[in-house]
Design goal:
- Helix content is 24%, strand content 25%.
- Strands 3-4-5 form a 3-stranded mixed beta sheet. A two-stranded antiparallel sheet has the order 1-2.
Length: 111
């Protein structure tokens, strides 16, 4: 279970059938986070490309500043838009270079 607790983990509690359960709260995104990002940059996905890029940008901006990433544009052929290991600033800059075209090649992009 993932629970967002704006005030911090001190007030978190859990019960099962009215019986209190042990609780441990940890951040979901650690400072050792590594991201492999693949964006659909195919011609068919072109109408949704801005939404996909915005989603990736939002993830990068909410990740710890120590997170390292690589960004691959899923098209034919797949293109490494941001090489590993890149920091948040380089990853965000790389998003602006992604252009749509070609067919999806998701398995090759993941490779």
């Amino acid at each position: 279970m993932v629970v967002e607790v704006p005030g911090g983990p001190a007030g978190v509690s859990a019960t099962v059938d009215g019986v209190p359960q042990p609780v441990r709260a940890e951040p979901v995104l650690s400072d050792r986070l590594a991201l492999g990002l693949v964006v659909d940059a195919s011609a068919d996905g072109s109408p949704m490309l801005p939404v996909g890029l915005a989603g990736v940008a939002n993830l990068v901006l909410t990740a710890p500043s120590s997170a390292r990433a690589t960004l691959v544009a899923d098209a034919t052929p797949p293109t490494v838009a941001v090489p590993w290991p890149s920091g948040p600033a380089d990853t965000l800059r790389g998003l602006s270079a992604v252009r749509s075209g070609g067919a999806r090649s998701t398995s090759a992009a993941l490779d």
